[in-house]
Design brief:
The chain is α/β, with parallel strands linked by helices. The chain is 22% helix and 16% strand. A three-stranded parallel beta sheet has the order 2-1-3, covered by helices on one side. Helix 1 links the parallel strand 1 and strand 2. It is globular.
Amino acid sequence: MHRLSSLPGGDFDAAVTVVEQPPAPVLLLTSAATDLSTLAHWLSLPEAEPWRQRIRALPLASLQHPAQVDHYLSVTGAEAELIVVRLLGGRGHWS
C-alpha cells in the first residue's frame, strides 16, 4: 500500500473515484490508446471468443491516485496471472 503522507506535492485531499473491473487472468495497463483500440478490435473477432472473459485492459490515465492503484490491484489484480504495464514516456506521464 502507498503511504500518501510521504509523497510531497501530491493533492490527496480530493475525492477519489475507484476503478471497478471484474478480475481476469490477464490485465493490460497501458498509456497507449492504440493498444486499447487494437485489443478491442481483436476481441470483436469471432476467433477471439475464448479470450473475451480472460483479459481486461485499462488506460493508465484512469489510475492517477495511489489509492486508485491500490484498489485496482487488490480487487482486479488479485486473481491475475499476468499483468502487463506498457508505459510510454517518463515518470511525469504516470508517477
